[in-house]
Each structure stands twice: as C-alpha cells, then as structure tokens.
C-alpha cells in the first residue's frame, strides 16, 4: 500500500541501491592511469575492465530488488518483517563485499610507486539503505502492534 510510511522507506532503499549500480564507488590513480570501482567492474578511464566485481554487482541487484517485494505483501506483516531482515543481511553483506573489492583493487596498484585512492560518496549508500530498512521494520512492527491491539478490543 502506497500510503504507508514503510512503503516510502522501502522505495528509498530500492532507489539508493539502483543508483549504486551506475555510479563509481571508489577511485584509484597511478602512473598507469585513473580507475573507478563500479558495482560490476574496476574500469579505467577509457572503459576497459581491469578487474571484475560481478559478485558485488549481483548482491547489489538482489538488494535492490528485495525491498520491492514487501511493498506488495502488505497483508502479511510478519513476512514483511522477515524480508526486511533478509534485506538488512544483504546490505551488511554488500558493505563487506565493497570493503573486500576495495582492498583487492587497492592491491592491484600497491606495487606501483605512485598511487592514490579514495572513496566516492556512493560507497556509503548501503549504510543509508540499512538505516531506511531499519525504519521500515519499525513501522511495519508498529502496524502489527496496532492490528493486534484492535483484535484484542473486539
């Protein structure tokens, strides 16, 4: 149901993760050139792929698709909560995979004499999405408590 606040939270989570698929997460610069870490690859400035990060991309796609499912399961609030918890696990896994691929990509350039690296703001999007997923779980739980209290009155 669109009018519930948790629907808005879950749509924000999905939008943040879709954005993450297309923007660079980190950058690396060396005498070999400039490289950007994307969801599916480590690419040079000319677009050639230096390292594949397909597993990170697949995890981000799953994390982006999963929040859309509880929106349509509005009558089954406990299942919504479980799916949101699974989403939170996926998001924590995404943060861990980002760290792993960042340090693996960093290792590619470590033997070069001059190299710099840094993060782009998009690397923090899973943490923001984790916060919005937590807010959605809280709102769904509040709805469940409201329904249970209404059942008790009847």
Description:
The protein is α+β, with helices and mostly antiparallel strands and 154 residues long. It has 5 helices and 5 strands; from the N terminus they run H-E-E-E-E-H-H-H-E-H. It has helices at residues 5-22, 54-65, 68-72, 77-109, 125-153, and strands spanning 26-30, 33-37, 41-44, 49-52, 115-119. Strand 2 and strand 3 (41-44) form a beta hairpin. The protein is elongated. The two termini are 25 Å apart.
Q: Give unreliable regions as ranges.
A: none
Straight-line distance between termini: 25 Å
* Proportion of helical residues: 55-70%
Please, what is the oligomeric state? single chain
User: What is the general shape?
Assistant: elongated
In short:
The protein has 154 residues and is α+β, with helices and mostly antiparallel strands. The protein has helices spanning 5-22, 54-65, 68-72, 77-109, 125-153, and strands spanning 26-30, 33-37, 41-44, 49-52, 115-119.
């Amino acid at each position: 149901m669109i009018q519930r606040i948790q629907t808005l939270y879950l749509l924000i989570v999905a939008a943040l993760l879709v954005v993450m698929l297309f923007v660079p997460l980190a950058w690396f610069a060396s005498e070999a050139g400039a490289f950007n870490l994307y969801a599916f690859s480590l690419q040079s400035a000319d677009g050639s792929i230096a390292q594949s990060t397909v597993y990170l991309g697949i995890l981000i796609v799953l994390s982006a698709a999963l929040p859309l499912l509880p929106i349509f399961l509005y009558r089954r609030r406990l299942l919504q909560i479980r799916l949101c918890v699974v989403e939170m696990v996926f998001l924590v896994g995404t943060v861990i995979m980002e760290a792993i691929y960042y340090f693996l990509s960093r290792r590619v350039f470590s033997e070069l004499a001059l190299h710099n690296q840094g993060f782009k703001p998009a690397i923090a999007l899973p943490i923001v999405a984790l916060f919005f997923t937590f807010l959605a779980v809280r709102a769904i739980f509040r709805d469940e408590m409201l329904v249970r209290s209404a059942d008790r009155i009847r």
